[in-house]
Amino acid sequence: MPHRELTHYAVSVVGADRPGIVAGVTEALYKLGCNIADSSCAMLAGEFAMILIVSHKKPFTKALLIEELKPVCERMAMTLSVRHLPLGEEDRKETSGEICQITVYGADQPGIVYRVTNTLATHQINIMDLQTKLAGTEQEPVYIMLLEATLPDGCEPEAVEQLLDGLKQELQVEISVRIVTPVEL
Amino acid sequence: MAVQPILKYPHPLLKKMAHRVDSLDTAIQNLVQDLLDTMAAGPGSVGVAAPQIGVGLRICVVDVSNSRHGKDNNHGLLCMVNPEIISRSGNAVMREGCMSVPDYTGDVERATEITVRFLDSQSGLEREVAASGFEAVAIQHEMDHLDGLLFLDRVISVSTGLFRRKSYR
């Protein structure tokens, strides 16, 4: 259902972590009368990264949003980026295929993320969530990637495992595929 | 009786502790029938608790026998009055959705085997059922409603615990 009376923006804020970042940014949004429709914020290494989809009743402009957020971000030495969302982009498109959780881990090496995600993309498997971490020791770094993806209709999880089997051998990493089935209770 | 509308959060009754039932009178039997009718009307629904239809009493119905996950391991229809879990073991995570919290699902950890004791409204007798797998999850989910708990109270992870609802299978 398109929200024709609302205008949406993608706002991202990144900078050195410290207490008060979320409060600072959301205070400015609150005072502007913006709603946070969807958001994900996380500490990545020493940085804190915020990605927010915000909405405001029309009329409203990107310039107004930046005018209020910019001084807040500058005060905290954070980078700011704002993008207006065209109508139709504000809602998540759900597909009907099975959901898979894929875990990949092994000795760190260049190209793990690229090789795995490229294989998935080639088969129209859509990533919905992805996180990576570098663990282990300096001598023996271990790369860990967790992702959740939707399979195209008719694609079975076993097929995904087979798809990734070649990579498992080639990169010498562990790859497991687990099906996630939501249940209505 | 009749299909009742399912209350949705933030209706306050969904967060209240439900009261014990004293006796299986006609009103209670009618309420159980309402729960059954409402469960049958919900697409893919495997259980309903009385607070979900606006009654703060410790009654819920569960039937996973027609579901993909429970069809091979179930006790059929369970009409549970004053249910209590008397033992539990094991744990597993499932992505749960709830008619009272539309649009979202969440990963919840629950016991994989439980023994539940309740007054069976169909026979009028006290009964103990040892449930496992999906049936055990469904019973725990419905019983949570009797304590004013939603799956949102049990989501296990901040970053990946809550998901936009997809179609159920």
Question: Describe it for me?
Answer:
With 185 residues, chain A is α+β, with helices and mostly antiparallel strands. Chain A has two domains: 6-85, Alpha-Beta Plaits; 99-180, ACT domain (Alpha-Beta Plaits). Chain A has four helices and nine strands. Chain A has helices at residues 21-32, 62-75, 112-122, 157-171; strands spanning 6-16, 35-44, 47-57, 79-85, 99-107, 126-136, 141-150, 174-180, 183-184. In chain A, the strands form two sheets. Chain A has a four-stranded antiparallel beta sheet with strand order 2-3-1-4, with helices on one face. Chain A starts with 5 loop residues before the first strand and ends with a strand. In chain A, 19% of the residues are buried. Chain B is of the alpha+beta class. Chain B has a single domain (12-164), classed as Peptide Deformylase (Alpha-Beta Complex). Chain B has helices at residues 26-41, 133-146, and strands at residues 47-49, 59-62, 78-89, 92-98, 101-110, 113-120, 126-132, 162-164. In chain B, the strands form two sheets. A five-stranded antiparallel beta sheet of chain B has the order 1-2-3-6-7, sandwiched between helices. Chain B has a three-stranded antiparallel beta sheet with strand order 4-5-8. In chain B, a hairpin with a 2-residue loop joins β4 and β5. The two termini of chain B are 29 Å apart. The mean pLDDT of chain B is 93. The chains are: A alpha+beta (185), B alpha+beta (169). The A-B interface holds A 40, 42, 92, 94, 96, 98-99, 129, 131, 146, 148, 150, 180-185 and B 42-47, 67-69, 94-99, 105, 134, 137-138, 141-142, 151, 159-160, 163-169.
